[in-house]
Write a structure and sequence with these properties.
The chain is an alpha/beta fold. It contains 14 helices and 13 strands. Strands 7, 8, 9, 10, 11 and 12 form a six-stranded mixed β-sheet that branches. A five-stranded mixed β-sheet has the order 4-1-5-13-6, sandwiched between helices. Helix 10 links the parallel strand 8 and strand 9.
Length: 376
């Protein structure tokens, strides 16, 4: 019995020593395995890529999706053998969905900045950009737009007062001087001749052929000279002020001219802060198309947004109607966005570098860039 017990313990000790030795041999092997996820593992799952209309980076035309960002992403996805699907969203929704993990990747000319980096992660930047200013071409500023600026409350009030004054004094002059000199005895054209006399006096042209003979006619003429001339001068002053304001408001040469002007921009983008920094009145729109419509309807004097999108519009739908100013408000850089802590970020960055280095001087990146923006 004693021998059997000793034999049992010896076998137990031997098995334990074997297990310890096996563990000791296996643990160092973990150092040779990568501690990050590989592209093959990620490629097994379908990645949700959020995109939004942002020509020419993302162009949505029915079921057709194209653009610079799309070509960049699809080259990366092919290199990494990734399964993915697109989901179209508005820009603010895109960033919120990325931060909450609803989507895995977002593309649409997303500017890299410190505030966004707190909630989401970025790849290295793949395109230099900046915030530009677009205004209407001088030739497209029509007569109705100018009249709308000129018809200020002060001018409208002056025109009403002037009209009433001419009507009142003209009737007094007609009833007192009709049938004499140049004022006809009949109401028509006598009243028109009286009106002309009042207008000629107000504008300091003089009476012409009319010289009032009755005291009431002379009193009316005196009122015209004293009150009417002052009223006319006030109206001219209002017109002068409005004309000056119109010239100042319609001329925008750079960021410094935006102060106090109504400027359209896109909600949820860095352009909102940029507009506020210029002390302009920011009119936030849901998308670029809405901002461009407001500019063409003269609801705003300029649009501030990412320069690639502004230039694409100016060269296509807005050709001859708008122009993009050469001076940028500030430079910006675009990156591919990921949910925070995403393991996609590292492998996408490696693939992005391969796009640059594939063929020196004729890389895949240069080919894609040339397709959408021309040769560098």
């Amino acid at each position: 019995m004693q021998n059997n017990t000793n034999l049992f313990y010896r076998r137990l000790a031997c098995n334990f020593n074997r297990q310890v030795l096996l563990i000791a041999l296996i643990i160092p092997l973990f150092a040779f395995f990568p501690n990050h996820i590989e592209a093959e593992e990620i490629g097994q799952d379908t990645i949700v890529v959020a995109i939004g209309s942002f020509s020419p980076l993302v162009i949505l035309n029915g079921d057709q999706i194209s653009g610079f960002d799309i070509d960049i992403w699809e080259a990366i996805a092919e290199d990494l053998n990734l399964n993915y699907k697109y989901r179209v969203m508005d820009f603010p929704e895109m960033l919120d969905s990325l931060a909450s993990g609803v989507v895995d990747v977002a593309l649409a000319g997303i500017t890299i900045n410190a505030e966004r980096e707190k909630k989401i992660d970025f790849s290295q930047h793949y395109l230099d950009s900046g915030l530009g200013i677009m205004v209407k071409s001088d030739a497209t500023i029509g007569i109705f737009s100018r009249l709308r600026v000129l018809l200020t409350p002060g001018i409208i009030q002056g025109i009403v007062f002037m009209g009433l004054f001419i009507v009142l004094c003209g009737h007094v002059l007609y009833w007192s001087e009709r049938g004499k000199d140049a004022i006809n005895d009949h109401y028509f054209p006598g009243i028109l001749e009286a009106f002309w006399c009042v207008i000629a006096t107000i504008t300091t042209v003089g009476y012409g052929d009319i010289a009032p003979r009755k005291w009431i006619g002379r009193l009316a003429a005196f009122m015209v000279m004293v009150t009417g001339i002052g009223l006319f001068g006030w109206l001219i002053g209002e017109f002068t002020a409005a004309t000056t304001t119109m010239r100042m408001e319609s001329v925008i040469h750079g960021p410094g001219d935006l102060r106090g002007k109504r400027v359209a921009t896109i909600e949820g983008t860095t352009s909102v802060d940029a507009v506020n920094e210029t002390s302009a009145i920011a009119i936030e729109c849901k998308n670029p198309a809405d901002a461009y419509k407001r500019l063409m309807r003269d609801e705003v004097l300029a649009v501030v947004f990412d320069s690639p999108n502004l230039m694409y519009y100016a060269d296509n739908e807005g050709l001859g109607k708008v122009k993009v100013l050469s001076e940028l408000i500030r430079k910006e850089y675009y990156g591919i966005a990921f949910s925070q802590g995403s393991q996609l970020r590292e492998i996408v960055n490696r693939s992005l570098l391969k796009l640059y280095d594939n063929h020196p001087g004729n890389s895949n990146y240069n080919r894609i860039y040339g397709k959408w923006f021309g040769e560098k």
